[in-house]
Specification:
350 residues; mainly alpha
Length: 350
């Protein structure tokens, strides 16, 4: 595992052929995972808290606003800040104009409030009105349809966006995030490669989403995830807790040594664990399969699951629990079942 570099440098290793080599390894064995990947709302919250979702505000200096739209945008912003989707929707239904900033403000609010179907309807209305879009509008649309699992629409919007807009950070982030939702590592890699070739700044949010694509992928993808982590260090980026949570999710099925190396890197970089990380990390260390995790309802279920777990993995899990407790980090509910089972197994061994 490489040592993180102090300043941002041009990436020497980022190239599609290298990433595609990692992609080949994705299909070698069945995927094993459990945790945040099964609860999109929890992972979305984690990304938002870690600050890896890029804002897609309209910032065209040549855009003009009518008095009606200025007033409406102000009222929409107030309702959005309250999380009041119904008020935003009510305001928009009374609007008969065709100004992009108004549509985008409503689309953005729909996404933030989890109103993906409503947002999709509004975007379809925008398209039917033949309103000229910019990268921010396309980016929000990509995120909306990715949440709905509408991969065909995501691809159509992306094709249209690339015909009309230059690639920038938010647009790239939206497409990588959509690829992550599908577990499409190849698309995520292609976007990162194009960003590197064309000079579009890559930040840790882009790489984290690409690592999340490894987590969501249908095969064993820890080698691709490690490649992406190494790439972020080569770029001089600072991985955060969202990065390491997605990395540990992607490391399901990896060798214990590889998992511990990544955890050691996280500690050396002084990235603090949080509650969601505890669940993902313990699940990966204990090598709990997705189907098995769903069946855990009690400590007895957990004990039955862990009795055949190799001693080295049990010890690594106990060491992690000690770390979490020393740092006063609350352990997630599934993790607490692991903790109780680990203690009982230790008592039985005496």
């Amino acid at each position: 595992m490489p040592v993180p570099m102090p300043e941002r440098k041009p990436c020497r290793c980022l190239c599609l052929p290298g990433i595609l080599l990692c992609l080949y390894l994705v299909r070698l064995q069945p995927r094993r995972s459990f945790g945040l990947a099964q609860d999109p709302s929890r992972l979305r919250l984690l990304r938002e808290k870690a600050g890896i979702n890029l804002r897609t505000r309209i910032s065209n200096p040549n855009m003009t606003y009518s008095k009606e739209s200025k007033s409406l945008l102000s009222r929409i912003a107030e309702a959005r800040d309250r999380g009041d989707w119904q008020s935003v929707l009510g305001l928009f239904r009374k609007y008969g104009g065709k100004e992009l900033p108004v549509f985008h403000a409503v689309l953005h609010t729909a996404f933030n409030c989890g109103q993906y179907k409503e947002g999709a309807k509004i975007y379809t209305r925008l398209q039917n009105l033949n309103i000229t879009q910019d990268g921010a509008a396309y980016a929000t649309a990509l995120k909306l349809f990715a949440k709905l699992g509408d991969t065909a629409r995501v691809r159509d919007i992306w094709k249209e966006a690339r015909s009309n807009c230059l690639l920038d950070e938010p647009l790239a982030a939206a497409r990588i995030d959509a690829a992550a939702a599908e577990g499409d590592i190849q698309v995520a890699a292609e976007i990162l490669d194009e960003m590197n070739r064309t000079g579009v700044r890559i930040n840790i949010a882009h790489v984290t989403s690409a690592i999340r694509a490894c987590w969501e992928a249908a095969g064993s993808s820890h080698n691709a995830a490690e490649f992406l982590l190494n790439m972020s260090l080569e770029l001089g980026l600072q991985p955060n807790i969202a990065t390491f949570t997605c990395l540990m999710g992607a490391y399901s099925g990896a060798r214990l040594e590889q998992v511990l190396d990544a955890y050691g890197l996280m500690q050396s970089m002084k990235v603090e664990a949080n509650k969601p990380f505890t669940e993902v990390y313990l699940t990966t260390v204990l090598n709990v399969k997705r189907g098995e995790g769903r069946l855990i309802r009690s400590v007895q279920d957990t004990l039955a699951l862990l009795r055949d777990c190799p001693p080295a993995r049990l010890e690594a899990a106990r060491a992690a629990v000690a770390d979490f407790r020393a740092a006063n980090i609350d352990i997630a509910s599934l993790g607490r079942r692991f903790v109780r089972a680990l203690k009982l197994l230790e008592q039985d061994a005496k």
